[in-house]
Design the sequence.
């Protein structure tokens, strides 16, 4: 029996082909709801199979993506699709803003509220969940066969995507796309909203529909994916908060963001500059005391700056990055301001930060 993983959350936005009775069949023939335009074939069953294998919770969308797309922000112009795969959706074709708002309120908001409610105890306790979203894609698109069996989609946070892509690469009978067949960068989509903006590790796994079109296929793919995902989670290491986009800002009365991401980024940079200014002025505060109290110090800030630069392809020397925090070469600061650590502080530091350099 596997250890239960209540910290994992499996999501399937496009699990269902159901239409609420009041919308009838959206003007489409019944048969359309058995095709990929209505839902992600096999994805719901695979999500449940994986959740069972990990003894982890899952949340599945209850309505067809033709009713409302649960993997779009409520402000996204395609949240209600008028066309799908070249086919007009009669009941959506002339939909007005009022009816879109009504669809969001009835069918879109409850799904996201359920995810938010599930994650709230984690947010409140400081525990870090890991979100895994399952989708499926058609083997052929606009006449061209797609070569991938799996697609691993990510935006800026590849903490889980990268080890998963690497691990899938060892399954040599499978071809895995890296942000193929789609790009994982989509503002306000499900993972953006619930994982990226909360700093939680996450990944979106796309599976080619013909592999999971029946129960045997679902069982086979679940059996193959389970050890791969376990290895990728182990390779990622303990889950931590990691923010790859500007932190969420305040909302207005309508629940819309007051500021765009660029403005929020600038405000965060301003707060960082003020922190640096404060640390430069408070030369009496010792790095070892910062480490003992809060687990980080001036050197860490410099190293985080250096790592952020490296992600943009800019190589900085360790001391050059730290100098941005110190306002002088670190050795100079040490000579001027660093006091000898008290035996207590040194002992505490040695005990709790064996790995800190
Ligand atoms: Zn999907």
Sequence:
């Amino acid at each position: 029996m596997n250890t239960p993983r209540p910290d994992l959350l499996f999501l399937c936005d496009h699990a269902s082909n159901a239409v609420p009775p009041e919308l009838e069949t959206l003007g489409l023939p019944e048969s359309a709801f058995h095709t990929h335009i209505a839902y992600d074939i096999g994805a719901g069953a695979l999500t449940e199979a994986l959740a069972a294998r990990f003894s982890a919770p899952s949340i599945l969308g209850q309505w067809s993506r033709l009713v409302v797309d649960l993997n779009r922000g409520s402000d996204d112009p395609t949240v209600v699709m008028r066309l799908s795969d070249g086919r007009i959706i009669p009941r959506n074709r002339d939909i007005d803003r009022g009816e879109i708002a009504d669809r969001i309120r009835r069918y879109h908001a409850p799904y996201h509220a359920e995810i938010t409610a599930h994650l709230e105890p984690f947010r409140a306790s400081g525990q870090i969940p890991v979100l895994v979203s399952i989708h499926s894609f058609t083997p052929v698109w606009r006449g061209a066969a797609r070569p991938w069996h799996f697609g691993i989609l990510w935006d800026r946070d590849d903490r889980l995507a990268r080890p998963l892509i690497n691990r899938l690469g060892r399954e040599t009978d499978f071809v895995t796309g890296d942000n193929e067949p789609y790009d994982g960068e989509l503002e306000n989509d499900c993972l953006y909203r619930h994982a990226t903006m909360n700093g939680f590790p996450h990944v979106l796994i796309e599976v080619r529909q013909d592999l999971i079109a029946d129960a045997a296929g679902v069982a086979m793919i679940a059996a193959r994916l389970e050890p791969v995902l376990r290895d990728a989670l182990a390779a990622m290491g303990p889950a931590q908060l990691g923010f790859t986009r500007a932190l969420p800002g305040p909302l207005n009365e309508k629940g819309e963001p007051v500021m765009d991401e660029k403005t929020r980024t600038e405000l965060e940079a301003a707060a960082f500059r003020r922190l640096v200014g404060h640390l430069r002025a408070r030369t009496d505060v010792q790095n070892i005391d910062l480490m003992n109290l809060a687990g980080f110090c001036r050197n860490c800030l410099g190293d985080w700056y250096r790592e952020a630069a490296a992600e943009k392809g800019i190589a900085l020397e360790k001391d050059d990055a730290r100098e941005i925090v110190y306002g002088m070469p670190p050795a100079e600061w040490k000579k001027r301001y660093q006091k000898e650590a008290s035996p207590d502080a040194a002992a505490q530091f040695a005990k709790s930060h064996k790995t800190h350099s």
The first helix runs from residue 43 to 54. The chain has twelve helices and ten strands. The chain has a mean pLDDT of 95. The beta strands are 8-12, 58-60, 83-84, 87-88, 130-137, 140-141, 144-145, 150-153, 176-178, 202-208.
